[in-house]
Design brief:
By secondary structure, the chain is α/β, with parallel strands linked by helices. It has 2 domains: 179 residues, 3-Layer(aba) Sandwich (Rossmann fold), CATH 3.40.50; 75 residues, no CATH class. 36% of the residues lie in helices and 22% in strands. A 6-stranded mixed β-sheet has the order 6-7-8-3-9-10, sandwiched between helices. Strands 2-1-4-5 form a 4-stranded antiparallel β-sheet, covered by helices on one side. A hairpin with a 7-residue loop joins strand 1 and strand 2. Helix 3 packs parallel to helix 6 and helix 6 runs parallel beside helix 7.
Length: 267
Amino acid sequence: MPVLEVKKLNQYFEKGTPNENHALKEINLDLEHGDFVVIIGGNGAGKSTLLNSVAGSLPVSYGHVKINGEDVTYENVSKRSRLISRVFQDPRSGTAPLLTVEENLSLALHRGIWRNFWTNGVKKSDRKLFQEKLAQLNLGLEDRLGAEIGLLSGGQRQAITLLMATIKSPSLLLLDEHTAALDPETSATVMELTDRLVQEQKITTLMITHNMDDAIKYGNRLIMLDHGEIAIELNEKEKEGMTVPKLMQLFKERSGKELNNDAMLLS
């Protein structure tokens, strides 16, 4: 049984008006356990619309979304949060800036479990776990458990957000252009960390990006969207030997159009 099933998903904006936009058109997508699927496409291709439809932050116009065989099409974000973890583009979105590193991690570890956080504080056993997990990041953060997370760099915060999203392995991990706001060096570090966490825990993952190099390098499947439709879908074997020029040529052959998107070509 697939972890994620998207069937005949259609999304409209301003339907029935002169400004109607058919943003997603009959999208069918299955993710098996451990799949790491990278979605690429230019502005307006439908990447964010697809991710938001899966996450529940955008109501589905037509079609179905299932996670672990359960129909969640009409469930909101909070109800889907028991199955989904998400990392956003802005490093500030995934953490509470006035709480410490260990307090943020504690909230993630005990997500969905009622507890009097302020009375109990952070357990000693949890603190040891956090130090072990942070040490694996190789960023020296295991010695900064008591630091306010809002004082850390964007890259450090995004690394911790990734750790928070995976500290309890979710059924589905959504990565929403989570390195786009980082400088190239930090972006590369966070992507390597992402790949390691996903592979080690075999987390079923859906990642959207503008970066064609990352789309080729990471994941076992690559999908390119164009105007709400799947223009290219490559499995792991088909990705072998793929380069950006080859991907651009393949897009031209299958869509009949030149790839002309600055955000992708300059990434």
